[in-house]
Amino acid sequence: MSETGVPRTLALAWGLAAAPQRGPKRELTLERIVEAAIAIADAEGLAAVTMQRVAKTFEFSTMALYRYVATKEELHHLMLDAALGGAEVGGAAAEGAASGGGNFAPAASGDWREELGSFVRGLVEGYRRHPWALDISLAPDIHLMPGQIRVADRGLRVMRDLPLPPDAKLGVLSLLAAFARGQADVEREVLAGAITPAETRALIEEAVTPAQFPQVAALVRTGVYFGDPPAGETARDRRSDADEMLDFSTQVLVAGLSAILSEMPETPAEAESRGREPTPREAYEAAETELREHVELRKRTQRRVRELEREEAALAKARDRAKEFAKADARRARG
C-alpha cells in the first residue's frame, strides 16, 4: 500500500508514487525498467524476467531496481498493463513499453459491428504480440490500471450509440476481454504444436468410443481432436487457420449482440439523444478523441516502418552474404 492509501501497483501505474530520492535516477526510470522487462519477455518468455536480469540490462545492481519496483509480481502487472493497454507508466509516455498497445483503436467505419470486430481482433493481437501476458494472473485491480481503462474507453466509444445501459456495456466489454484471452490461449497451444504423449493418446482412443461419444469419437480417430496438423501444413498455414477461426468467432459474437439489440425497444431518452445535435463540449471531446487516436495510429505506423527497415537491412545483409558465396562458388567451379 502506498502513502496515499492506494495499492502500490496502481500508484506506480498512475504516477502517484514518488521516485526514489537516491540511486541512479537519470539512467534508471520506471518506464525504462518496464520497457526492458517487456523486451526480455518478448524474446525469451516471462520466466526469463527476473529482477536480476532486468538490472543487468542497465548494468546496475538488483537492489537498484527494488527502489522502483517492490516485487516481481508488481513488475509483471505493470508489464501487462503497458504491453496490452498502451499504458503511460508513471505518467510519462512509454512508447517502447507500449509497443504492443494501441492495437485496440477501432477502425472508424461508422458501422459499430465492424468497429467492434476490429476492437476484438485488436485485443487478441495484443496477446499474439506478447504471449507471455497469458502467464500473468489477473489481479483484482488490473482493470483500474491506466492501460486497461484506455482499452475500456475505446470499447465503450464503439458502443456509444448502442441502446444499452452503462452496466450492460461494461458486461459486453468483460465478455469480449474474456473471449480474447481465451482465444489467444488456445491459439498459443495450437500454434506451438503441442504433442499429446503416445500413452495418453492411446488411452483416449480406447476410451472415447462411438457408442458413448458419437460426435467426438470421429475427431479422435482422425487426430483432429489432438490438434494434429494436416499433412504438409506449415506454421504459416496454422497462423492463417487461426486468423480464419478468429474472424468466424468474432462474427458470431457480434452477430449475437446485434440480434439481442434488434429485439430491444428504444427508450424515449435514447431516441431523443440519437436525434439531437451534440453540444459544443461533446463535439470538442469527440474531436479530441479522434485526434488522439490519429496520433496513436501515426506512432504505430512509424514503429512498424522502423521494424520493416530493420528487417529490410537484415535481408539485405543476408542477400549480400549469399551473393558472395555464389561468387566464390562460381570461382571455384571455373578453377
UniProtKB/TrEMBL annotation:
Pfam families: TetR_C_1, TetR_N. Residues 265-295 are annotated as: Disordered. The keyword Transcription applies. Residues 27-87 form the HTH tetR-type domain. This is TetR/AcrR family transcriptional regulator C-terminal domain-containing protein. Residues 50-69 bind DNA. GO terms for molecular function: DNA-binding transcription factor activity; transcription cis-regulatory region binding. One of its GO terms (biological process) is negative regulation of DNA-templated transcription. Keywords: DNA-binding, Transcription, Transcription regulation. Residues 271-295 have a biased composition (Basic and acidic residues). It comes from the Bacteria. PANTHER family: HTH-TYPE TRANSCRIPTIONAL REGULATOR RUTR (PTHR30055), TRANSCRIPTIONAL REGULATORY PROTEIN (PTHR30055:SF151).
